[in-house]
Amino acid sequence: QVQLVESGGGLVQAGGSLRLSCAASGSIFKIYTMDWYRQAPGKQRELVASITSFGTTNYAESVRGRFTISRDNAKNTVYLQMNSLKPYDTGVYLCSAQIVQTFGSGLDNYWGQGTQVTVSS
């Protein structure tokens, strides 16, 4: 089985920074795209940032220039550096990864349990 475990969330004042981590473990042959999503109360889950296995990144317009996604393929870990945080960045941040567990098996999407980020004004 595969597990994704996020860490690094917390409470921060507006203008502050946080760094989220998400480590994948278990039976893993290859990890393709890794994503960060967030879900605020009463709102739909939205894609915040994604990074391919080659390092190509994509960001939501609302975070571009403030957030940076990166990954360490040797550690099966994806990071989200969040700077200049704003109250509307508050939500549960979840990581997602497209993973092939064994050679020749199919591609499956896995989710972490989420980590809470709260930005106070």
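That was protein one. Protein two is written in the same sequence-then-structure order:
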Amino acid sequence: QVQLVESGGGSAQAGGSLRLSCAASGRSFSSYVMGWFRQAPGKEREFVAACSWRGTNTYYSDSLKGRFTIATDNAKNTVYLQMNSLKPEDTAVYYCAASSYVRNLSAGPRFYDYWGQGTQVTVSS
């Protein structure tokens, strides 16, 4: 059982930065794979990044071109998504997710069994 709560969303101008946080609670989440996904209006939910809880293994969407970074802070039970050089096309609801069973960090949203409520990110030009 894992509960995830995202925060840190909001508005930013193109070229700016935001850091999203995902506070995790429950049992066994430290052994899960953690991921970030986003969903723009009218589009399917897409993969952004994933990592092991320790953050020693990471995987990113090729489309992000290194602008986003996923990291964990075990002491705070928190997963972060640092978003730099934001573009208007980054506008979406961003979701934190956890998978109790996935073994491939590139797995899509169907392979995640726990989800946060989402946080809106809006990037203006």
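The mean pLDDT is 94. Keep this in mind for the problem set.
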